[in-house]
């Protein structure tokens, strides 16, 4: 990473605007991260769950990126995620599958910030069939994962895990598992929470036990019929209370992986691509190997790379050599 | 129901002490309900989720049953449910499967109330194998359902739905689905709650749609992969927001029934026995018929009948003719 006082080759500001937080990246040549910032300015905080308030988005944008724009007022800015939702900064209507993530004609929504910066907002994707899947932000990670030519499948673990199938840079299908949110609901608000005691570190044996129970439940009474064991096992002395949280983590992640493997993954499922933060990636990789995948490839920094490549695909930044900015010796 | 001023043949007070509320019944000959009362004195309220506080149970007991005991100080009292839990009024250790619910030697826990009344507390059941199922209170409903000789299966829908298998009055197996609690979590605390608008009456077409999606998901990505549709369908205009709550109800109840039918129910599953309040029973019956059961038998008042029959089985009340009490012309 460059000296934060003199990031000499800044190309782009990228924003990954989620539901609970917003991450900002100062990106250089080939998408290298020169600096980054994160703040709890997710959609829910900015709007308090209500109608869109452009001033609140503007304020969050200034807090995160103001100092970068003070230095380089003409730096292009691109955002993905909830900034483009109906309750966002500016609505970027969903693109319909199949959708080429690197399409030069991809139409971003645009909004001008108070200081006059034009912010490009990448549209999410929707599947018009069946249960009408939607995603916002993950499409940018899918491009950033850079899976290459041919057909690939990838999981983006998280609050609402996405499984996506791509043909090159074209998304052909995806589905959503509410895994992370269900885990949060169960450990915070359910009766199961009363028998959870925090552990100083991940309890991997308990996690594995949850994965195994999930895999067996898939052919039996399912997750709905297995969850209560996170109460009955500690209640009857068959599990330490410090194991319950990781047991539940294994149950829900194991259920997601075993369900996807059975119903969604094409072919022999030898390899799994996964993009998430390192801690969550480690859980998915561990469970996936336990459930029969042979190799799990962890993809890092998919969001900033996807922001940079989208910007380049639509011509917002030029191909190398990198654009130069005021104060930069080129 | 007898005149509440002169319930001339009171045999027993029965208490069904749940997690969120407590129901008290004044029972007459053959378990007929002479009067009843309900208060939000469930285990969680009485103990505020913490250690057992006998004084709080005593207070709740007096509020619900004091006037009955003022009139008939010697009326026997029997309770089932959370009053016997470790955080309850007096711990009644679980009985282990297989367990005969009508065993004359069934050992109740006993606690003496402040006014001197001895309260018998029926123990719950546990399955020592596998995921260590537990129940408290439902065992009493199972006896009250009076399924008769031979092998039967029954569902007790609720916060934590139980499916039980009985041979006569002997419980041989059971399992738990967290259906009601999951529905409450999703509609109150999840992101799905933001797109729910109340409907003036049940939206049965939306409920049926949820049941159908659940049945299809059983062979696909499962409930975890179907839940997010309760967001994407209204978000994309494919469902009215007033339909979302009943769609979710159909999703979770349909998942429970389809999972149980596939994995748990013995034989051809032509008939389903179900014991719950009328509104919930109607939902289960509707979904069960949709999923292939031919007949659904709704059992009413299983708890008070079970309390009465348990009291008779252990000799707490005599066989008819009924015991008489002060002020009663026999």
Tell me what the structure shows.
- The structure is a homodimer of 330-residue chains.
- The first copy, chain A, is an alpha/beta fold and 330 residues long.
- Chain A has 2 domains: 12-128 and 306-313, 2-keto-3-deoxy-galactonokinase, substrate binding domain (Nucleotidyltransferase, domain 5), CATH 3.30.420.300; 179-299, 2-keto-3-deoxy-galactonokinase, C-terminal domain (Nucleotidyltransferase, domain 5, 2-Layer Sandwich).
- The first copy, chain A, has 9 helices and 15 strands.
- In chain A, strands 3-2-1-4-8-7 form a 6-stranded mixed beta sheet, with helices on both faces. In chain A, strands 6-13-12-11-14-15 form a 6-stranded mixed beta sheet, sandwiched between helices. Chain A has a 3-stranded mixed beta sheet with strand order 5-9-10, with no helix packed on it.
- The radius of gyration of chain A is 21 Å and the shape is globular.
- The first copy, chain A, starts with 11 loop residues before the first strand and ends in a 17-residue tail after the last helix.
- Mean pLDDT of chain A is 90; it is low at 320-330.
- The interface between A and B is large, with 50 and 50 residues.
């Amino acid at each position: 990473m460059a000296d934060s006082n003199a990031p000499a080759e800044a190309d782009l500001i990228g924003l990954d605007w989620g539901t609970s937080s917003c991450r900002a990246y100062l990106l250089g040549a080939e998408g290298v991260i020169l600096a980054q910032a994160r703040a709890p300015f997710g959609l829910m905080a900015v709007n308090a769950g209500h109608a869109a308030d452009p001033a609140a988005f503007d304020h969050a944008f200034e807090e995160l990126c103001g100092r970068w724009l003070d230095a380089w007022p003409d730096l292009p800015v691109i955002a993905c995620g909830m900034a483009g939702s109906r309750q966002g900064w500016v609505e970027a209507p969903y693109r319909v599958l199949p959708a080429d993530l690197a399409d030069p004609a991809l139409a971003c929504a645009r909004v001008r910030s108070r200081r006059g910066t034009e912010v490009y907002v990448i549209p999410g994707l929707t599947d018009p069939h069946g249960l009408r899947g939607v995603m916002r932000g993950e499409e940018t990670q899918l491009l950033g994962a850079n899976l290459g030519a041919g057909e690939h499948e990838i999981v983006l673990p998280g609050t609402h895990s996405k499984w996506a199938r791509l043909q090159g840079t074209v998304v052909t299908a995806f589905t959503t598992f509410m895994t992370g949110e269900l885990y949060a609901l169960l450990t915070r608000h359910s009766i199961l929470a009363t028998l959870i005691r925090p552990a100083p570190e991940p309890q991997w044996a308990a996690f594995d036990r949850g994965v195994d129970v999930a895999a067996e439940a898939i052919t039996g009474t399912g997750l709905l019929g297995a969850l209560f064991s996170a109460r009955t096992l500690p209640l009857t002395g068959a599990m330490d209370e410090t194991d319950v949280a990781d047991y539940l983590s294994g149950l829900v992640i194991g259920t997601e992986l075993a369900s996807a493997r059975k119903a969604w993954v094409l072919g022999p499922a030898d390899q799994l691509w996964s993009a998430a933060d390192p801690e969550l990636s480690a859980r998915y990789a561990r469970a996936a190997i336990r459930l029969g995948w042979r190799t799990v490839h962890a993809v890092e920094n998919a969001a900033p790379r996807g922001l940079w490549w989208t910007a380049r695909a639509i011509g917002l930044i030029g191909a190398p050599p990198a654009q130069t900015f005021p104060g930069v010796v080129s």
